[in-house]
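Write out the bound-state structure for adenosine-5'-triphosphate.
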Amino acid sequence: MITLGIESTAHTFGVGIVEDGTILANVKSAYEPDEGGIHPRKASEHHYANAKQTIDNAISKADISEEDIDLVAFSQGPGIPQCLQIGGTAARSLSQKLGVPLVGVNHCIAHIEVGKLETGAEDPVTLYVSGGNSQIIAYAGGKYRIFGETLDIAIGNAIDKFARSIDIPHPGGPRIEELAEKSENLVELPYVVKGMDFSFSGLVTRLQQMLGDYDEEDLCYSFQEYAFAMLVEATERAIAHLDKDEVLVTGGVAANKRLQEMLEVMAKERGANSYKVPNEYAMDNGAMIAYTGQLKYNSKGETEINRSGIKPDWRTDQVEADWNG
Ligand code: ATP
Ligand code: FE2
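---
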């Protein structure tokens, strides 16, 4: 079975093509804001302008023809409504044109499923950390449930905000990581973990107040140490609570070496395995939507056209993910 999947929840318009458990193509076109954060209308204009070309590129990359496609999957939510709308429209028209079924996929669950496919993790506690999301998710009782999450902004958003205040363009993560590597001087910052939840907005405000009085490299280093320690502490609590022995990290922030290292140390101490999703599949991408669409279709069938509207606030635990067994 060959599935084409479309991702368009935020800044990435991605198209992936999957044949059963094999990824044949994963092509993306990312909107990059000139300044500031994501502008919903500009991002959706970018997606609209690039949709057809990205779909065509994926088909030629996969070395198939349009007629070979058996199923069209798309990211139905959660995400920015204007952006979701473009992917939804593209998916509906492609499925109608080809006369093949359509399936709507939850973006957060897709991150986990492709992570399991790529790493071999079977039943992990997942730390999903990106620009728009920071959640600790695990499978329990037929659903992926959120055991911990940010009480305010996502970690990637926090990093990008601080980056902007020191004139680093979006996305700020890689540059902040480079600056952090140049320091070992820890300065005190707010540390907020409540059970398995955490918060970053006070941390960013404090860092912004400290600018000028402290070395930027020390601030970047301390930011990472505090923020990642919070994420790792909450993840460890979830592993202990659920008695699982695998941890999977995904999302754009999973690219960070220091975060990976801290998770590995924690996992090792607990006798658990830690897995990191390769960057190409950890960032928003179409392959994860195609692969998860196929799992969902095989277990639950297609998404009827009148139920294929976008779901900007779709929560992970609203999905019956019983294809997991
Ligand atoms: P989502 O829709 O899942 O919220 P997104 O639109 O934020 O995703 P991603 O590509 O998953 O897109 O993540 C981008 C985020 O990852 C940005 O906030 C960016 O700063 C952050 N990031 C990228 N590389 C690093 C890094 N090395 N260290 C820390 N953060 C990073
Ligand atoms: Fe994402």
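---
The mean pLDDT is 96.
Residues 123-278 form a domain with the Nucleotidyltransferase; domain 5 fold (CATH 3.30.420.40).
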